[in-house]
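Exercise 7b. Backbone tokens:
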């Protein structure tokens, strides 16, 4: 059912200029002649995968953090090498086969990661989700993805998604109904710090699956095409979506919200109030969506990966897997998608721009910077008078250094403290 889809989905500086000053500039252009979104690499951690479904992923503080069933938590600085972390949940795992513990969603904000989920009681032959009924919410926090604190929510619900914005964390999910009726209504909780949480009300009784922040508003999505908006997470307004399909994920980027769900549903909106349907080209259920480097990426059932530069026109990509993909995030120049069977896929769409180290001695400046394999690097320079000029007009001091995963150094035959440097990074064809 539509309720099953939304709940199943959840039950489971760009560059540095160094010299007399440091400035942060926006993104690095790609040089690659082939589309990197056509290339997805299986990055399952070793000796993992454990087979536990991974349900959510976020990037922050230089780390990807993925969460899943069995209170699985994995971290990676680069999307390739993963470390399993030990969550702190009293009795996590399963209890005599009658309770399962699941982390569903992940967000980063205000200097910390917050993971949300729930415990689900197994009631044989009952309930709308395979006999699983939400029991208690799980909320965990961590400053670095390694050490976790369990906040142990006593709320009778399961949290499915979380977002940060406007000084607030907002978590959404589904409540536990009267007389053991599973997945009864919505649940919305807010927190200014990830520690103390307040339950909020809304006008819907539909379960909620995902939430995002952008353009001054939180947008929450869920069953039966439900869309709610709120500027601060406290008072919520129900919006028309023109679909009755369950919506499972939502993101904000490049000036618009994009929501995805059952039957390949994709909706876009500049403000969260008025929504337009887009043709996804698939009937597979879509479960997660993210934006980065000028691209939206949506993931879903049967290994579905779709990409779009504008949220309107979508291109199907080959993921190399038939496992359901449940969530996707962007960071460090790449998209990372996670899903069933512990699946982790990554696509490097931009070379991370390195932060160079500058040393001046004996009339020579040495510029050192880390590299990645498959990227090339240019060293550009200017003086203080040229700082306001477009980067395209900056002279190139060294062209080209090829990355191999080690640190590289180049020299400039001057020790002028009024010279500013930028390292440009580009993916190789």
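Sequence design result:
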């Amino acid at each position: 059912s539509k309720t099953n889809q939304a709940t199943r989905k959840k039950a489971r500086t760009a560059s540095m200029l160094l010299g007399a000053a440091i400035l942060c500039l926006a993104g690095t252009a790609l040089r690659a002649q082939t589309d990197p979104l056509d290339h997805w690499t299986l990055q399952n951690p070793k000796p993992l995968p454990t087979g536990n479904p991974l349900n959510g992923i976020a990037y922050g503080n230089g780390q990807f953090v993925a969460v899943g069933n069995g209170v699985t938590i994995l971290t990676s600085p680069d999307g390739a090498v993963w470390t399993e972390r030990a969550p702190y949940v009293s009795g996590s795992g399963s209890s005599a086969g009658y309770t399962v513990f699941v982390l569903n969603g992940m967000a980063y904000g205000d200097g910390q990661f917050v993971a949300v989920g729930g415990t689900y009681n197994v009631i044989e032959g009952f309930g709308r989700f395979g006999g699983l009924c939400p029991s208690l919410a799980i909320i965990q926090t961590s400053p670095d993805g390694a050490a976790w604190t369990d906040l142990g929510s006593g709320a009778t619900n399961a949290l499915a998604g979380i977002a940060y914005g406007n000084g607030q964390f907002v978590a959404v999910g589904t409540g536990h109904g009267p007389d053991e009726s599973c997945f009864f209504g919505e649940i919305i909780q807010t927190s200014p710090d990830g520690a103390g949480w307040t339950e909020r009300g809304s006008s819907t009784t539909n379960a909620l699956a995902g939430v995002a922040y952008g353009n001054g508003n939180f947008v929450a999505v869920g069953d039966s095409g439900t869309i709610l908006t709120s500027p601060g997470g406290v008072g919520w307004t129900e919006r028309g979506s023109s679909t009755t399909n369950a919506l499972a994920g939502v993101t904000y980027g490049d000036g618009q919200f994009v929501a995805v769900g059952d039957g390949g549903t994709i909706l876009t909106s500049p403000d969260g109030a008025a929504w337009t349907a887009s043709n996804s080209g698939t009937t597979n259920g879509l479960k997660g969506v993210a934006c980065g480097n000028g691209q939206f990426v949506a993931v879903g059932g049967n290994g579905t990966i779709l990409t779009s530069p504008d949220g309107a026109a979508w291109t199907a990509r080959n993921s190399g897997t038939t496992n359901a993909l449940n969530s996707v995030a962007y960071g460090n120049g790449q998209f990372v998608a996670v899903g069933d069977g512990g699946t982790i896929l990554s696509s490097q769409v931009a070379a991370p721009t390195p932060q160079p180290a500058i040393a001046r001695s004996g009339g020579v400046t040495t510029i050192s910077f880390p590299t990645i394999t498959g990227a090339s690097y240019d060293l550009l320079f200017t003086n203080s008078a040229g700082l306001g000029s477009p980067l395209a007009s900056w002279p190139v001091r060294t062209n080209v250094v090829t990355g191999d995963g080690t640190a590289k150094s180049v020299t400039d035959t001057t020790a002028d403290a009024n010279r500013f440097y930028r390292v440009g990074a580009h993916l190789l064809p």
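Instructor comment: Confidence is low (pLDDT under 50) at residues 1-33, 90-97. Residues 2-11 form the longest helix (10 residues).
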